[in-house]
TrEMBL record:
Protein name, UniProt field: Peptidase M4
Listed Gene3D superfamilies: 3.10.170.10
Lineage: Bacteria, Pseudomonadati, Pseudomonadota, Alphaproteobacteria, Hyphomicrobiales
């Protein structure tokens, strides 16, 4: 990224922290919106929009723009339960006999057809492996309702189906809570299909063309890890970590239209690292797992590699002699720095370890008073008292939940394309500062320190102070957009619910009036060059955040992109430019995080990457729609 490429407007608004998410009624939302207008009102009224954009002449609709309107969500009646409890393996079958190896996930309730199949997830299964017809799991039958679903089993297809549905529902609920809005898929079908027994393959991956999560099964190596049968059958659909990882890929694809287009070494590494972060931090949502880690590490959770490990069964079955990846708590994981490898999983592990180190440091700060009391009364050789374990586990779980929510919310503060690790650091710092002005627990300090220790730096800042890492706005302030103010939006009773296609189209037109204004194109990373295509409105979504004072804040986050033919040496190449635009509830632009297509340094860097062996391989897989299938083939 080059100087001036990343930009945003920062208004002097009060900033709170995200602790929980809650729905609001229509009347409550109106009151909250009025308060938001008062809080976020600029000191001087911004000029009204002058340019009126015309669809097809000035802008186009992105391919995924209307996908959000097709996302299904069950509207629960007052007679229905809040949650559906379902048993799953906490990690995988290897650990299932251990204490805490099986847990219960409480997923948001919805009526289910056989599969299970709901409003936005549907299990699709066949008989390829079983040699007989496979019945689809019926989780609405009386026995399943009374017994927390089907009992955990490696040989029961119904439990396999239940496992993928439950974990995918868990991931969806975590993202929905952190973002304060419904999800959307990369496909216009509105349903993500889950294939627990896709084929005999040492692979599990998200397929964007079919909008499916595909989970393979395979025979273990002759000398597998502990607890595994030589040549035994291993099902990737029974690994909590693998399911959560692949589900995260699908959710990210729905959030950002071209976020996975490989334009530098960081792009796919970021996706792999982010998916690992989600999978690992979900471990902290289960008290038994966290308490075990507290006991093993004698209260120093950052020193316990087990809770920071992924896919132990898969790693052992493929000859890795241990978990597939361990993110923290080992010399190898803790010593890696940015650039030590360009392989996406290995490079992504640097991002993961930075996030988890920051988490462990915040945990130590929050737990210091309890640990002081423990040290005063506990003999050095004595184990931790169960009450001490409970208290420390509660702190670890709360801290992890907040880090996970921050990592997810930061996606809204990333540029729409060509992501780099240093830019994600800026997104994290800005997203947290936007909600929590007083960093009393040191979230931002520890993130900056952990990233710096791994030599992850943005390219366009004078230093790595918190102030310098916040996105900076363009000198020219774009006009306010009354058509995108909160009181102009045609919202559902729950503002976080996906709007109609008609409302999305109206909002896209209001955004285009400003971003396609010839005088403002450059401010949004767009070009007026004759070789440039039409700017495309890729997404417009609600921002809903809840601070520690319980104040609900609303806004919008939008993506606009443009294809441009630019010169690179003696030839032309195709580049993508554009920006992420974030507005407050009054329709005033607060952040414009842009990537211009015609920046000379960026053009040279992207062209060089595409011509490299790694870039050519990744670009070919992306063009064929098999990015994740190809990336995970390394385990074959």
């Amino acid at each position: 990224m080059n100087p001036g490429d990343a930009a945003n407007n920062v208004l002097p608004a009060s900033i709170d922290a995200l602790r929980t998410q809650s729905d609001t009624t229509a009347s409550a939302a109106t009151v909250l919106a009025s308060e938001e207008d008062r809080i976020n009102a600029p000191t001087a009224a911004a000029p009204p929009a002058r340019h009126v954009a015309q669809l097809g002449r000035d802008y186009a609709h992105g391919r995924k723009l209307f996908n959000a309107a097709k996302f299904g969500r069950h509207r629960r009646s007052s007679e229905e339960p809040l949650y559906r409890p379902l048993r799953v393996y906490l990690s995988d079958p290897v650990a299932s006999t251990a204490v805490g190896g099986v847990t219960v996930i409480s997923v948001p309730y919805e009526p289910l057809k056989s599969g299970p199949s709901g409003k936005f997830l549907a299990v699709v299964d066949g008989d390829e492996i079983w040699g007989k017809r496979v019945d689809l799991a019926d989780l609405d039958c009386l026995s399943a309702l009374l017994d927390q679903g089907h009992r955990p089993s490696t040989t029961d297809p119904a439990f396999h189906q239940q496992m993928v549905y439950a974990v995918c529902s868990e991931v969806a609920a975590v993202f929905t809570g952190a973002l304060g809005r419904d999800l959307s898929w990369g496909s216009d079908t509105g349903i993500l299909k889950l294939r627990p027994h896709y084929g005999e393959d040492r692979n599990a991956y998200y397929d964007p063309e079919s909008n499916e999560l595909r989970f393979g099964y395979f025979k273990a190596v002759p000398e597998p890890g502990p607890g595994l049968l030589p040549h035994g059958t291993v099902f990737t659909c029974l690994s909590h970590d693998i399911i959560a990882h692949e589900m995260t890929h699908a959710v990210l694809d729905g959030m950002r239209s071209r976020f996975q287009e490989p334009t530098n070494t960081d792009v796919l590494a970021f996706h792999e690292g982010f998916a690992d972060i989600v999978a690992i931090l979900l471990h902290f949502g289960h008290a038994g797992d966290v308490k075990d880690a507290i006991v093993r590490s004698v209260g120093k959770i950052g020193a316990d590699p087990t809770i920071f490990s992924l896919a132990a069964q898969f790693g052992g079955a493929t000859g890795a002699n241990g978990p597939l990846r361990t993110a923290l708590g080992t010399d190898a994981a803790d010593s890696r720095v940015y650039g030590f490898s360009d392989e996406p999983h290995e490079l992504g592990s640097v991002l993961v370890s930075a996030i988890l180190e920051a988490l462990s440091q915040v945990f130590e700060r929050r737990a210091s008073s309890i640990k002081a009391l423990i040290a005063a009364y506990k003999r050095p050789e004595a184990p931790l008292h169960p009450t001490s374990v409970e208290l420390l586990a509660a702190i670890a779980m709360r801290t992890s939940n907040q880090f996970l929510a921050l990592c997810i919310r930061a996606i809204d503060y990333c540029p729409p394309i060509d992501i780099r690790f240093g830019e994600y650091l800026r997104a994290l710092i800005t997203a947290d500062h936007d909600l929590v002005e007083d960093d009393r627990d040191g979230f931002r300090h520890e993130l900056i320190t952990a990233f710096a220790r791994r030599k992850i730096f943005p390219d366009d800042v004078p230093d790595i102070s918190e102030e310098s890492l916040l996105w900076r706005g363009p000198d020219r302030v774009p006009p306010r957009m009354p058509g995108l103010s909160f009181d102009a939006l045609q919202l559902r009773p729950d503002p976080g619910e996906s709007p109609s296609s008609e409302e999305i189209e109206r909002e896209a037109g209001a955004l285009a009036d400003v971003v396609t204004d010839p005088d403002l194109l450059a401010s949004f990373g767009l070009s007026s060059d004759k070789r440039a295509g039409l700017p495309t409105i890729e997404s417009i979504r609600i921002l809903r955040r809840v601070g520690p004072d319980r104040q609900v804040r609303f806004g919008l986050v939008c993506e606009v992109l443009q294809q441009v033919r630019v010169a690179s040496g003696d030839r032309e190449i195709e580049m993508t430019g554009g920006s992420t635009v974030i507005m407050d509830s009054a329709g005033t632009i607060r952040f414009v995080i842009r990537k211009a297509a015609d920046r000379a340094n960026r053009v040279a860097a992207v062209d060089q990457f595409r011509q490299s062996a790694l870039g050519a391989k990744q670009s070919e897989a992306y063009d064929e729609g098999r990015t994740w299938a190809a990336l995970h083939e390394r385990h074959r």
